[in-house]
Design goal:
heterotrimer; A: 463 residues; alpha/beta; Spore Coat Polysaccharide Biosynthesis Protein SpsA, Chain A; UDP N-Acetylglucosamine Acyltransferase, domain 1; 8-stranded mixed sheet; 29% helix; globular; C: 111 residues; 32% strand
Chain lengths: 463, 117, 111
């Protein structure tokens, strides 16, 4: 049997606004990425191959699941468009779907089951049709039964209501309490209700109260109290004398000293009250902030050096024209400055800076624009390392979500990669180019592309 | 920051309306204003209906206003905290220091009845 | 880079072999009139081993021009490497992507 897992962006639309940096497909439920629960289920149902299909990004899912060899199944991926019907989805995956029984899990669903053995039996005997369904999605089986026999009176699995942050919160707490759990949870567990990951440091006088699950690389400082009913992700620090109970801390979160996190979800600097759905982004790093993920540490220094060198060269090149032309433009009133706030994903905070714009009606205005003098002040930011020389157009913080930027591909910069190419005609095209080079860039290529972007701007004005 | 004196209880209660953001950039203003308010009355109410965001320096300022009014045998009561602002108070345990009311009227009335909320 | 063309259910399937990048895009655009007319086509990418942002740009541009004239482009048989390029650039949002060229042509013809 093969499985199609079809999850659309609209299926998890309720979750994405809360945690913009987390792909809901790998959103941890009790420290286990959501998608793994569906993979487990598919495997228990007897699948040997699973294809994960979405109209949204699958990067993070792929990074986590890879080719599925760790579960002993084939995991593959495919893209669809948002309004494709399930028939179209099957049509688009004709080659994969041919000649086998097919289990189609459609929707952002959480499937509850108790007995792992029963599932395979049930699926082997079940004839085609909809096996379970709610307003959020369905589980459908296509093809003839593998063996004949008496089906169990009740289906051994059911769909859990999973469509609000409160549901998510309660589900986590429920799974944590269940013992023995049908879902294998990550971490070392030698007594009921207590899972502890690798490299967990527990300070003097700190208390751990069951039920609790703690991820990897976690520091619980002196006098802190964790639990009962706490889900602590990986790469988390809970500082001195703070209390975390009946709460979920997602990965890479720092909880400051002497705080009380009760009935909350914390993710980086975001704090959510799951009951009311209210969330707040804290701006005090000593209270709540995001910790750099392990992947970021040490990387990028070389790249930064290259960018700083290019920025310096451009500053040297442009300082003379800047000093000559800008005062003239100011007198003519063509040099306007606007304040601008953008979100720096790397540092997880908002940065505000002044960005000039040039009213461009021929003459000096055009010359200044051709020389990219409007970008000149930003070059100093690049020299300081706050932004890159080349990357994405900095997106105003309020537009960030609408722009649909993948958290990984967005790197605010003085010049955009899109300016180095000739074909992009709209913002969507520019985003494609920016994300292409964000993934396929190298310091040397960045340097070449910066020069290309710079020359392109001159070129477009000369024409 | 609006400030008015309410005499409905017979004694003066100062009601200050906070709005927008209260953070490192503007908490100094509140500090100064508060000093002048305390000269008129030590019984204060901060009406937070319009307060959308509070950071730790803002919180620190409110706590120091509380301390000063307590020193003058008054009190500082808070009214109409938005859910977001309320979360900051809970997270930092500052909530326990204050009497908090659903709206300014209730807060003012509590001064007359001696309610501690 | 080589380009092959075949008909399937009255639809042209254009198969590309080799790399689609800045240097080969102009040649590719001239290789077949089917790429520039208003008819729907299927582009079979099974043999493409390298695609850069100009190559992507060329596919986006072909699709845009055809859609303006009522046609469409469907892509078929993306290999692992290409699928990753479409994934990181989010270009998957712009195309109907099939894992089989014939199935893409059949359903396009029936539409």
């Amino acid at each position: 049997m093969k499985t199609l897992i079809v999850i659309r962006e609209k299926d998890y639309g309720w979750l994405s606004p809360f945690f913009p940096g987390v792909n809901p497909l790998v959103m941890p439920v009790c420290n286990k990425p959501f998608i793994e629960f569906l993979i487990d289920f598919s495997i228990l149902a007897g699948s040997s191959a699973i294809r994960i299909i979405s109209d949204g990004p699958l990067n993070e899912v792929e990074r986590y699941c890879e080719d599925g060899s760790r579960w002993g199944v084939d995991v593959s991926y495919a893209s669809i468009l948002g309004n494709d019907s399930i028939e179209t989805v099957i049509e688009k995956n004709r080659k994969y779907c041919a000649d086998q029984r097919l289990l189609i899990i459609s929707g952002y669903l959480f499937i509850r089951y108790e007995n792992r053995q029963e599932l395979r039996h049930c699926f082997a005997m079940a004839s085609g049709g909809t096996l379970a369904e709610n307003e959020r999605g369905s589980i459908v089986l296509a093809g003839t039964p593998e063996i004949t026999g008496q089906l169990p009176a009740a289906t051994p699995f059911s769909l859990v209501e999973f469509d609000s942050i409160d549901n998510y919160f309660r589900l986590s707490a429920e799974i944590l309490k269940e013992y023995p759990s049908p879902y294998v949870l990550p971490g070392y567990c030698n007594e009921p209700d207590c899972h502890i990951g690798r490299n967990v440091v527990i300070g003097k006088g700190a208390e751990i109260r069951k039920p609790v699950i703690i991820g990897n690389n976690v520091q619980i400082m002196k006098g802190a109290v964790v639990g009962p009913s706490a889900v602590v992700g990986s790469n988390v620090i809970i500082d001195r004398e703070s209390t975390v109970s009946r709460s979920i801390l997602l990965d890479n979160t720092y909880i400051g000293e002497q705080l009380e996190v009760v009935d909350r979800i914390a993710a980086g600097n975001i704090l959510v009250d799951p009951r009311s759905g209210v969330s707040i982004a804290m701006e005090d790093p000593h209270l709540l902030s995001s910790l750099p993920g392990s992947a970021h540490i040490g990387s990028g220094l070389f790249r930064y050096l290259f960018h700083a060198i290019v920025a310096l060269l451009l500053i040297l090149l442009l300082s003379l024209p800047y000093l000559m032309l800008v005062p003239l433009l100011k007198i003519q009133g063509k040099w306007k400055t606007g304040s601008f706030t953008f979100h720096d994903i790397r540092q997880g905070k908002n940065l505000r800076f002044v960005m000039p714009s040039i009213a461009d009606e021929g003459g000096i205005g055009s010359l200044a624009k051709a020389l990219s003098l409007d970008r000149f002040p930003m070059l100093f930011r690049a020299l300081a390392g706050t932004i890159a020389v080349i990357g994405s157009f900095p997106v105003e913080v309020s537009h960030r979500l609408e722009a649909g930027y993948a958290a990984t591909g967005y790197r605010p910069a003085v010049f955009s990669y899109a300016e180095a190419e000739d074909w992009p005609v709209n913002a969507e095209d520019s985003a494609i180019v920016e994300q292409f080079y964000a993934a396929h860039g190298s310091p040397v290529r960045d340097m070449v592309l910066t020069i290309k972007a710079f020359l392109n701007r001159i070129h477009s004005k000369v024409q | 920051m609006d400030f008015r004196i309410d005499m409905s209880n017979g004694q003066p209660v100062g009601i200050a309306s906070l709005d927008g953001r209260l953070d490192a950039e503007n908490c100094g203003d509140l500090q100064t204003f508060c000093q002048s308010w305390l000269k008129e009355t030590s019984r204060l109410v901060f009406d937070c209906t319009g307060l959308d965001f509070l950071d730790s320096s803002g919180l620190g300022t409110i706590v120091s206003c509380l301390r000063k009014s307590l020193e003058q045998d008054g009190d500082l009561k808070l009214a109409a905290l938005s859910p977001q602002v309320s979360m900051v108070f809970e997270l930092t345990k500052a909530r326990k220091l204050f009497s908090i009311f659903p709206d300014a009227d209730n807060a003012v009335r509590s001064y007359a009845s001696g309610d501690k909320a | 880079m080589t380009v092959e063309e075949k008909k399937c259910h009255d639809l042209t399937i254009v198969s590309i072999n080799g790399s689609l990048e800045a240097s080969s895009v102009p040649g590719f655009m001239k290789s077949s009139p089917a790429l520039t007319d208003s008819q729907s086509i299927v582009i079979d990418l099974a043999g493409v081993d390298f695609l850069d942002s100009s190559g992507l740009g060329c596919l986006v541009t072909i699709a845009r021009k055809k859609r303006e004239q009522g046609g469409d482009v469907r892509l078929a048989c993306l290999n692992e490497k290409l699928r990753r390029v479409f994934e990181v650039t989010q270009a998957f949002r712009l195309f109907d992507i099939y894992d089989d060229a014939e199935s893409a042509a059949t359903t396009a013809a029936n539409k």
